[in-house]
Amino acid sequence: MRVVNFGSLNIDYVYRVDHFVQPGETMSAQSLQIQCGGKGLNQSVALARAGVETWHAGRIGPEGRFLKETLDRAGVHTRFVEETAGSTGHAIIQVDSTGQNSILLHDGANGRLTPDFVTAVLDQFSAGDTVLLQNETSCVEEIIRQAARRGMRTAMNAAPANEKLEGLPLEALSWLLVNEVEGAFLAGTEAPEAILDTLAARYPETTVVLTLGEQGAAAARGTQRARVPARETAVVDTTAAGDTFTGYFLRRALEGGTLEEALSLAAAASALAVSRPGAADAVPGYEEVLRTL
Ligand code: RIB
What we know:
Blueprint: E1 2-6, E2 10-16, E3 31-37, H1 39-49, E4 53-60, H2 65-73, E5 77-83, E6 89-95, E7 101-106, H3 115-122, E8 130-134, H4 140-149, E9 153-157, E10 175-179, H5 180-187, H6 192-202, E11 207-211, E12 217-221, E13 224-228, H7 241-254, H8 259-274, H9 286-292
Parallel strand pairs: 1-4, 1-8, 2-6, 4-5, 8-9, 9-10, 10-11
Antiparallel strand pairs: 2-3, 6-7, 11-12, 12-13
Alpha-D-ribofuranose is lined by residues 8, 10, 12, 37-39, 42, 91, 103, 136, 239-240, 242-243, 279.
């Protein structure tokens, strides 16, 4: 199980607030924490903590060196994390009193991935390996097309939902993971069953995974369907819940588990992640997740 993750690396500025700041409002935050984040980094940490041999490929600026060190400490291979001139990606995250978040992104070095970089990284892998990506870096289409040409399996967490998703060759993916917002954006419909039916019909060779927050998670491949409920937990911070889910889902899927098994493991891991503050810091370890099943 070797995974190379072309992933964003962000410095997260996390502000605890009573409510999200409103248009025209000036408000003081209750606290500020500066943490490691980025959907890509969080997903690499989740994969590594789930026991998958993981390489992270991405770019940072000089002030983001601690992000690479965090990946190192988590056991992620970082020889493809490159330092470039210019700023590191960052996120301004408000977390309200119910644990929900609101995120403003600045791409920084995540927007400086180039086709040559993608080629140089993928040259180090082969058809039996898996590529993971999200929608927070440049070169998303290039990564999907190159991975497909090389016969590699590809998983994409299509987050965040924005116009960059339009026109991507998503039919080339082995796994497409979305939440309700991303699923509705891609499918053009809102009911969970309709999202799954639409995307499974449009991408018949792809396993489509839909996370539904308190409603659990569901998956579809062709006419096959699976669904698991959410696990009961006290929500502290939902940041990186989807990233944790992605890493743990892939772990079980890559070792040949059924859709139900992969969804159950992922749901248990993300329930632990939301019960604690932070993004990468909140991702649980594999044994801890197994103990809750
Ligand atoms: O999914 C959570 C992540 O989204 C945060 O860590 C933030 O950096 C944004 O990328």
